[in-house]
Structures are given as structure tokens and as C-alpha cells.
């Protein structure tokens, strides 16, 4: 299938109005531009920053490039319909998103506590967007101007496109398309779809006729499709009795050998084979919303199928019943070419906040204003991460020339530039221009990860283009330093000592954050992360090259507590590793079950969707608040407030030998005055054994 050209459309008639300094957010700004109306109005939960790292700015400038008049309502007051009438009635459609983050992830911590700030709001103020923002904004758009088509997108809509477990309500919710009552949902990087939708609406086509676009979901059936029951491909098996342990047949050697031949491996993880029918005219029938809400095994099965049908080269359409309607998911969008990426990121962004926000401080903008996106996508497939589900696993890279031009624009046009580029990266730092060595194999592959359980033999891991880019970028006049702040995939990095040398000697500012996530094989297998040995090899090379350059530099490792598949013993082993290596983490994170992630399916169901569901492989899940706090306490073993909790746990686990004052002990047997107690509960009296947590300052609730 030929890729549709993102910029091949004839511009819409309104292109004669030219380029706006900023997309208008008020009627007065529209009047200054000479507009009587907007063709498209975008509603977002983020403050408007005209920068390609902000989704609404990227989509807005893209539609402007196609000739449409685009207005933006950023963080509109949702308690009234009037703010949604500010720009008048859109001629073609509303585009609605919660913003760069899911609104629930944005507002609540992994302990379901309300966050005190919002990085995408002026001065970091919290509370400027509603919970489940997409639903609220769509309702207000409908009230403001009934009959105008509504298209929802962004990460909140993307990751909630089918029935999904919602951590904050602790239940399975319907597709957000059904709850929002929107006309279309665009998922993933939606440039191709949104441009096509706008042009077809501009040509007078009815929104209900737009049903076949890749990367979209709708509730109107498509004709001519052969329906396949997903349970006939990946059988969930009986719910009772409990299954035998799953035979570990999917090992790295077998997967690598099979993939190297270009044939589908026999392993359950990627065994789905195309039948002798036109896959483009097949639709997979997933278990209905009602079924997955009632049956954990069917939920895990649906999650598994969704992730297996993620490759744009072979993914089929899917359909899932919600009461009286079907939600149709078309196959994922085709990745952008390098030329398309270049033109997209070189649109005329002002690269700064809208004028009304320039007197405030936007934390998210401060983080990225001197950074450059060089790639999209991630083939890592980490089970807890949403990048692959949203951006896809195919890496989309910009050209070297385009990246260097953007650095020059930052140098010349961005206020406050001091010669330092804060980041050259993307979802990962070191997947630039990496791809499968064979387009045929890439199009047929059904593996959720190219690097787990080992790096695929067919994956090109050459870091040479990235090294060349670094050297040219730091040689630009007026550029003093270029840092790499994006996450490093260290199992890939050890394939290129030259890149590690470049990173350590030229692009690290004393500390480099890195995310091994855990040390133990059980949690790492459920995360789909490499073993700690890869981290050790990376650290050895990083330290060596730092020393060569006469620099004292350190790795700052990040770890996740309470991830599915993690036991108390695993966290103890991690705590001991941290102490042996002299790490005392300050900020720690507990697993947050975000919508659609495979790890979230594990958390909700107790099954492992990374394996065939017929195997019925169970996963140990940490759900109670007390145990989640304990797992975080192991990461902060050095915090005296956690010692009473840890001592109690160590005794319960039969490891009282780790309590004492020696170097081999994890926690001391004594307690410093004023720590480990809740002063409100004791009223001045010391109550040994009552543990406080850093995040709440409160003791665990007593069981009734």
C-alpha cells in the first residue's frame, strides 16, 4: 500500500489568509487576522504553547499549512458553556483532547492522591482542567453548537479507545468514544487522519461517511468485512480450575532464530498466522465490553489481541460490542516518512507560549523550550509504558539537516538561549534511524518488542548516524553544549561503545538518569525489560569513558515499586542491591496502571497477557495500599521513617538477620527520636512500629 503524502492535498481555500503569529484563542485575535470564523476549533486541557512538543500546536499548525483557519480554546472554564462559544461556530469540526497527558494521570498520583501542581498549566497551577477532560469538553462543545462534528484524539482518547480498566474508578469502563458520544476518535500520531478528515469535511462530505481511515475508531459498521472471532485465534481457556504453570517455551534463542529466517516463530507470543483471506478485509471480533468487564480472562485476552494487532504492516481492523453499538477500530496509522517528519517539525511555530501565558511560567515548556525532537516511536515494548501503544513501534526519524536547522532556529529566535541545547531525543535517546533490516520481515512481524527477551537479529542497531549528528550539532556556531536528557536504552547502547563514549564525554552534565526499573528476573520479565547485567555493562563503559575525559559523572538509576510480578522478596533484593551500590533514591515511583498497558491488564486480571491466555499464567499483583507502601519503603530503605515498617516486614519474611548496625544490615535495630511515628496519633507519646510514608506523611490505616 502506497503511503498517502501528508502534504500532497491541495490547500483549502482559506489558505489566502496566510500564517498566524499565534493561532487565535479569542474573538479579538480572530478579528486581527481578518477572520469571520474558524474552520476548525481545537479544545485542549493544556495551556497553548506554540511548539511542536505540544500536540494541539502541532495539529493546529499542520491544519493551517493545509489552508484551514484554526482556533484554539486552551484550558477553557468547563463549568459553563459560554467559554466554548468564544470563537463562534466552527465551520467544519471540533477537535478535542485532554492534552499531552491523560487527565487522570495528570491529576492523581499512583496512590490516588490529588497532585498539587500541573506542569502544563500557567505557574504549574492545579485544577485548570476537569477529570476525564475529553468527556467534559465534548459535552460542552455539543451544548455550544449542536450539530458540529466532534473528533476526539490525544493520548487520553488513544489509550481508552476500547473497553479498558480504569485505575481511578477501579472498574472496566467503556470505550471513550461511546461515553463521549463523539463522531470519530483518532488514535496514535494522528496527522494523516486529521488532515484527511478536515479536507473531506471541507469538500462537503458527511462525517458519518468517513469510516475507513487508518488510525480512527467509529461506531458505524463497515461492509464487506469477514468477521473472525478473536477467541478462535488465541483461546482464553476455562476460567476454573486454576491452571498449571505455563511452560517457558518462548525464550530468546528460539525467537531470534525464527525471526532471522523471516518466518513466524512457533512461540505463543507471536504465533498468529494470516489465513488465506484478504487480511485487509478481515475484522477481529473482540469480546464485548460486558464480557471483559465480567471475565478477567477475557479482558486479558482482549488486551493481548490488541497488542498483537499493532503493526501497521499486518494489523487487522477490530470490533467490540458495547451494548447496542459496535466500536470499530481501524488498523494503526502508517508511519511518517523522513521527508514528512521534516516538513511537519519545520512548520512556522513561534516556539513559545501564547502571549497571554508569557508573563507566567509553564513548567512543561521550561523543560523542552531548548530541546529538539529527532525521532518518534519505540520498539522497546515495555509492558508498563504507553509509548508503543500511542506512537507505535516503528521508529520515525527526521533528517540530519532538518534537526540542525531547528537547532539554528532555537539559537537565533528563542528568548533566553545561552548556547545550551537541553536535549536531542524523543521517546528514547538512542533509537535514531534504527529499523528492521528487512521491510518484508518488519511488515510481517508480530512481536511486541524488538529487544526482549533479547535484541532481534534483524534489528539494525547502528549508532553511527546518531554519533555523526551529535558531532555536527555541537560544532554549530553559538552552540556551547548539547545534552541528552531522553531515556537511554542501555541494552542497545552497549552494542555501540563509540556512542557511549560520545555520550559520556560530550553530552552528559555530571549525572545521567537511567531506568533499569528493577534488578530481579521476575519483575523484569513482566516489564519486558533487560536483565541488570546490561545495566552493569553500560555502567562499566560509561564510567571508563568519563574517567578518560577527566570527568566525575554518575548514573542515577530509576526503579519501579509494586509492578505486577514483584514480590516482597524481589523488593528486598533490590533494596540490598541499592545499599551495596551506595544508592539512596530520593524520589521513588510506584507502578501506576495507565489505560491499555499490558501491565495494567496484569494488575486488573492477575493473568499474563504476554503469553497465550490458554496457558493461564498467573501474575502476583500488589494492590493493597499497605503493600504498595512497603514496596516503596524498600526503595527508600535509608529513610528512618520507613524503618519500623521494614523491620516488621523483615521479621515476617524470616530475614531478621538484616536488622542491625553492621554494613551488611539493611536497617538498624534502633529508631531516631522523632521519626517513624505519627505525632497526631501519639500526641507526644512515642509509638514504636508505626511507619510513616514520605508521600503522605501518614501511617497505614489499621485493619478493622
List the helices and strands and how they pair.
Blueprint: H1 27-33, E1 40-44, E2 49-50, H2 55-65, E3 70-74, E4 93-96, H3 103-107, H4 133-144, E5 150-152, H5 154-158, E6 164-166, E7 171-173, H6 176-180, E8 184-186, H7 191-202, E9 216-218, E10 226-229, H8 252-261, E11 282-286, H9 289-294, H10 296-308, E12 317-322, E13 325-329, H11 338-345, E14 352-353, H12 363-368, E15 371-373, E16 375-376, H13 387-391, E17 396-397, H14 400-413, E18 420-421, E19 423-425, H15 439-444, H16 464-474, E20 481-482, H17 490-493, H18 497-506, E21 511-517, H19 521-527, H20 532-548, E22 554-561, H21 568-580, E23 589-590, H22 598-605, H23 625-635, H24 643-652, H25 679-682
Parallel strand pairs: 1-3, 1-4, 4-5, 5-8, 10-11, 11-12, 15-19, 18-20, 21-22, 22-23
Antiparallel strand pairs: 2-14, 6-7, 8-9, 9-13, 12-13, 16-17
Helix pairs in contact: 10-22, 18-20, 21-23
Write up what this structure looks like:
The protein is of the alpha/beta class and 704 residues long. It has a domain at 13-215: 3-Layer(aba) Sandwich (Rossmann fold). Helix content is 31%, strand content 12%. It has 25 helices and 23 strands. Strands 3-1-4-5-8-9-13-12-11-10 form a ten-stranded mixed sheet, sandwiched between helices. Helix 21 runs parallel beside helix 23 (625-635). The chain is globular.
Brief characterization of the structure:
This protein has 704 residues and is α/β, with parallel strands linked by helices. 31% of the residues lie in helices and 12% in strands.
